[in-house]
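just leaving the lab so this will be short. what follows is a protein written twice so to speak, once as letters and once as structure tokens for the fold. can you read through it and tell me how you think this chain folds. thanks a lot i owe you, the record is right below.

___
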Amino acid sequence: MKTILIIEDQPDMRRNVATILKMENYAVLVAENGLEGLAIARDEKPDLILCDVMMPELDGYGVLEGVRADPTIAGTPLVFLTAKGEKTDLRAGMNLGADDYLVKPVSASDLLATVSARLERERHRLATGFNPDFTTAAPLERKLGLTPREAEVLLWVAQGKSNPEIATILGAAEGTVKKHLQNIFEKTGVDNRNAASMLAFEILS
């Protein structure tokens, strides 16, 4: 049974997310602020963390930094829970190393799909031995001859992001992201996102 830690200061939101996950047979841990959540993460080593961005005591960015700085939990997938319209917060969180995001209020289908996808990606990472470092796109730029922006796009493609999601994260138009992706395919000699992702995995690992 996989264990999910929910760090959320709003009681109703925390309770609703926990209920959805328990109904799918996940073990659930809860924390009402960032300091408590980080302490639980260090003690319990959950398989995935769902973390609100705006919280008292310690916000989501602080939690993320604390998780990534602790070798015992640094690889734990962390998904931000962000209020609708907080695109600036979203970009900041993803650039700091969050694995994904969900916009509140979260539907049961979106929550379960995201949790399942992130756990499966982590399982695949462990099974294949790939341990990519997604903190910087510089190796992709240097080894593949990409522009800085193309390297950023490939970095997010490798993390399973769609073009609209990448556009939001980078603050760019979706058409611009598509153009960068076409350039990436041409420069790397691949013809699809999966092949490009595998190439990125190899370089970033």
The beta strands are 3-7, 27-31, 48-52, 78-83, 100-104. The chain has two domains: 3-128, 138-204. The CA atoms of residues 125 and 131 lie 6 Å apart. Residues 108-128 form the longest helix (21 residues).
